[in-house]
Amino acid sequence: MKCLIVAAGQGTRLRDKGLSKPLIPIKGSPLIERVIQGAHSAGVDEFVVVSGYRGQELRAALDALAPTLGVTVTHVVNDEWDRANGISVHKARAQLTEPFLLTMCDHLVDPGIFRALMAAPAGTDTVTLAVDFNIDRPLNDPEDVTRVKCVDGRIENIGKVIRDFNAFDTGVFLCTPGMFTALEASQAKGDDSISGAMNVLAGWKKALVLDIGERIWIDVDDPAAFAKAETLLDAGQL
């Protein structure tokens, strides 16, 4: 199974640590290397990486890194990297004709989350989001994380500012090509985001959820989260 990694944005909140967010070192390894290693340890060896901002630098680094990690990396260029993250996903459409994993270049997760998604059934045109029902766990910023309302194993609503929610979006998905149809439908409504596509899929009853249980994940999006991630890595929890 292939894994798509979205790595096109600027990452301005971590600018003090490096100009290219995916290449910012954390405990000696670039963020995106740790993402790749996590998925690789779960059995993934084919990656599609969407780059944009400072993309040439990232692509060169990944070309050098891939052989040492024992993986292949296919590059997709997003020249509209200043738009929402769904644009990056859609630009990879030609590379992904079978079920695939989707994750972000700055989300460090327990490899067990990847394994659980890979073992989950990929129904026709469905997308399954790994969700965290531990909404009182202080690891991720509740004011910044994407919120999810789940009912009977499906997503009812998803977004940054929804008030009725019972889970957090971990940023890790098992997708079918139905994701691209949903992205197009969401874009037609003026929403270029992955969450917009998931709300479209929710309306079609095709947005499923997988409970990560007590597995750890963190969105390394600002200095506070970066420090927490370093602590987790030191403790061997990621």
Automatic annotation (TrEMBL):
Statement: the UniProt record of this protein carries the keyword Electron transport: no
UniProt keyword annotation of DNA damage present: no
Lineage top rank: taxon: Bacteria
All residue ranges annotated as the MobA-like NTP transferase domain in the record: 3-135
GO molecular function: nucleotidyltransferase activity
This protein's UniProt keywords: Magnesium, Nucleotidyltransferase, Transferase
Protein name: 1L-myo-inositol 1-phosphate cytidylyltransferase
